[in-house]
User: Which sequence fits this backbone?
């Protein structure tokens, strides 16, 4: 009996077989790319997988886009992400990476659109909300940014950034109570091994100090320094806490640490040349007091302690400083003369101090000098 072959069914089976082989090949490529990504082989991906990509799966194209993303090649990153999205617009991953790339490129309004699309596909991803918050923050839509960061914290596996950014936004909005509360929340949520934990501690110490809660500021800065002994800015802040409390002996070891770091040449930024050891309000003025590290009798005039007086518009009104005077020392007089400087003019009321000066006495005299020459 002759067997009749249905050619249409044969063609369908052949097509399905070939399709299955193609899918298998694509999945293999995707697996290879994923393995290379996991091992940071970005250059290998770019050199070996980008010349013949037209038949790649959406996932493979996404992995290539990620390789370019890690190499900070924004143009090629977006090219392959768009190819991936065009093949599968239901996968939120390439959409999220595209939005993140647009953020890095400064195209924040466009990034907002793509972050929202990623969220519409996967509404429980904290990273998506965090990225959206960053976009809004950059375009200064702080209320929308705050809402996005808060939504990020409501999801599982929330990154550290949203917790800190909530506090930062409240701070920018002059809502210090809410900022402080947010930083305490950040401290409770972030691992102690993370640098973000140190940021939370620093801000807790800072805002507790601003509110006059020095007893609460002290342990925050102390814990921070114990974790990171090289955070010299926190040394200066802790010194300020002790000066507010008039516990000058407690401040001395931290001053010594700053001087040691200065001698080693490891200080940077605004503590490189001098450090602020006291801040206070006085008769409507804001006063910041600095100490310079230079304490050697080099024969050259230099300022040791400097009081800056600012008005309510943050304009410098007068500077009062102790000046090392080699002539005074040569004549058997005090090592430092208390002088004032205002718009190029210098005033010397004839008040002197030595290294064993009492800070309360210095502060009293500096305020008198300010009253005289302001």
Assistant:
């Amino acid at each position: 009996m002759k067997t009749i072959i249905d050619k249409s069914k044969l063609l369908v089976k052949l097509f399905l077989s070939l399709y299955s082989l193609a899918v298998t090949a694509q999945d293999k490529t995707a697996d290879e790319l994923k393995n290379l990504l996991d091992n940071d082989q970005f250059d290998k991906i770019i050199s070996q997988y980008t010349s013949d990509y037209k038949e790649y799966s959406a996932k493979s194209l996404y992995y290539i886009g990620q390789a370019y993303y890690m190499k900070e090649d924004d143009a090629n990153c977006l090219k392959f992400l768009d190819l991936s999205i065009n093949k599968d617009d239901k996968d939120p991953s390439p959409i999220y990476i595209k939005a993140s790339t647009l953020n890095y490129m400064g195209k924040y309004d466009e990034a907002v659109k793509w972050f929202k699309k990623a969220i519409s596909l996967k509404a429980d991803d904290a990273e998506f909300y965090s990225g959206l918050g960053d976009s809004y923050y950059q375009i200064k839509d702080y209320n929308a940014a705050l809402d996005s960061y808060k939504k990020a914290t409501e999801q599982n596996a929330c990154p550290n950034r949203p917790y800190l950014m909530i506090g930062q936004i409240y701070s920018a909005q002059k809502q210090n109570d809410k900022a402080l509360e947010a930083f305490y929340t950040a401290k409770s949520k972030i691992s102690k091994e993370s640098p973000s934990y140190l940021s939370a501690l620093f801000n807790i110490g800072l805002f507790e100090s601003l509110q006059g809660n020095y007893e609460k500021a002290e342990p925050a800065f102390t814990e921070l320094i114990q974790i990171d002994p090289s955070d010299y800015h926190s040394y200066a802040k802790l010194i300020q806490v002790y000066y507010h409390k008039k516990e000058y002996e407690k401040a001395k070891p931290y001053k010594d640490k700053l001087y040691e770091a200065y001698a080693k040449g490891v200080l940077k930024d605004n503590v490189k040349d001098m450090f602020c050891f006291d801040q206070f309000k006085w008769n409507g003025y804001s006063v910041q007091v600095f100490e310079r590290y230079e304490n050697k009798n080099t024969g050259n005039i230099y300022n040791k302690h400097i009081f800056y007086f600012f008005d309510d518009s943050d304009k410098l009104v007068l500077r009062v400083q102790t000046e090392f005077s080699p002539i005074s020392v040569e004549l058997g007089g005090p090592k430092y003369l208390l002088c004032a400087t205002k718009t190029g003019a210098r005033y010397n009321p004839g008040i002197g101090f030595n290294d064993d000066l009492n800070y309360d006495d210095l502060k009293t005299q500096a305020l008198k000098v300010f009253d005289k020459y302001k």
Q: What stands out?
A: Residues 18 and 248 are 82 Å apart (CA to CA). Confidence is low (pLDDT under 50) at residues 1-25. Strands lie at 274-282, 285-292, 303-310, 316-324, 336-342, 345-353. The longest strand covers residues 274-282.
